[in-house]
């Protein structure tokens, strides 16, 4: 399964650079909001997942660079949660309520 390898690659990058993976949520395959062209192909579906992790800015750049060149990735986002304090982000569960 390709998504498993993508998650493993990103998780290992975070861990080997001193970061912490706090959780992984598999949102499964669903339709993209609109057709997307990436890596010389048009995509209508994608496999969504959420990985919560803490790391320094240099590690975040490594993760972003890796995901940007991976042909299995169509789109991705890295979002800062809270103000850098655990109590600010601990309430965020990572569930996709709109899929339920």
TrEMBL record:
One of its GO terms (molecular function) is small ribosomal subunit rRNA binding. GO terms for biological process: translation. GO terms for cellular component: mitochondrial small ribosomal subunit. CDD domains: bS6_mito. InterPro entries: Ribosomal_bS6, Ribosomal_bS6_sf, Transl_elong_EF1B/ribsomal_bS6. Belongs to the bacterial ribosomal protein bS6 family. This is Ribosomal protein S6.
